[in-house]
């Protein structure tokens, strides 16, 4: 069983008299900074000159300074800039300003797990990773509840890295909901696997494969869209609330029998072997190496694949249908230009 910490297991007083720097003011950064401030913590935000987030943070009443200055001022540094930019900013602005006894914190373990950031001895390294987008982390805090989070210690130089991480988790509201103890490796590897095999890669291909099968067989794309994409949300809501059993309880017996009849033919031994291979590449570092190289090359494959996916027929029919469904509060993502090769 996982170890889970709640409010009574964390002491926010540990943060008294200590200065916290939140680097970045995006999805996570704004939520951490505002929640810390409202919990009475001395917080400053670190950004770069010309950042679009700078004015937003100041408008929210938060003090903003350049990253290097924020780190130099702070005892605790939470790194909430994009994962692909962290290593460079670490070398230039963070590392030269870290002091022994400081705490370096993350909300995702990628750069530590894959050695892109190698912190000095003498510094605590920990993680508090809320399991929700930043706007929810802020909204739930304001409502007096909280977001569940993962917590991990990578390096314990002071002997109280864990208590400090829990105090931080409490200050942003996470111990109200429960903070699960993990490691940087477990958080990073399961996060990458989940988004690749299930949440993003797996689900998107499943939707498109179902849609294409129907459309190629001559069925109307609009009908295929509703069956394979729109209705997915209704199904997900059921198992989010009551597990797969509640989904099966709620659908018809024909749908439930269809589930048992078809599921293992679609996600079969070959799909499971592919999942195992994805996991092996995550564990060996092969995937990380590929993604780091893709970034170093200016992301040619990433931008090409994004442009292709944005032009998939399901995106065109979906955009049209959602315009007629104001209740879904449609959001339109403009397709980006196809990169020249
Ligand atoms: P965002 O892209 O939403 O925000 C990044 C922020 O960093 C922006 O304010 C951006 O400013 C700023 N920034 C960009 N480059 C620099 C730089 N060189 N120096 C200083 N600031 C910079 O990031 P997220 O909040 O999504 O992600 C932050 C971390 O949180 C990541 O490690 C991510 O894995 C993790 N995480 C994210 C979750 C999420 O729901 N989004 C959930 C859990 C963890 P500007 O926009 O002005 O360029
Ligand atoms: Mg993820
Ligand atoms: Mg049906």
From TrEMBL:
Cofactor binding note: Binds 2 magnesium ions per subunit.
Residues binding substrate: 252
One Pfam family cited in the UniProt record for this chain: KARI_N
Location of the KARI N-terminal Rossmann domain: 1-182
EC number: 1.1.1.86
Catalytic residues (positions): 108
Record's keyword terms, sorted: Amino-acid biosynthesis, Branched-chain amino acid biosynthesis, Isomerase, Magnesium, Metal-binding, NADP, Oxidoreductase
Coiled-coil residue spans: none
Keyword Metal-binding: yes
Function: Involved in the biosynthesis of branched-chain amino acids (BCAA). Catalyzes an alkyl-migration followed by a ketol-acid reduction of (S)-2-acetolactate (S2AL) to yield (R)-2,3-dihydroxy-isovalerate. In the isomerase reaction, S2AL is rearranged via a Mg-dependent methyl migration to produce 3-hydroxy-3-methyl-2-ketobutyrate (HMKB). In the reductase reaction, this 2-ketoacid undergoes a metal-dependent reduction by NADPH to yield (R)-2,3-dihydroxy-isovalerate.
Similarity comment: Belongs to the ketol-acid reductoisomerase family.
Listed PANTHER family: KETOL-ACID REDUCTOISOMERASE, MITOCHONDRIAL (PTHR21371)
Protein name (database record): Ketol-acid reductoisomerase (NADP(+))
Annotated gene: ilvC
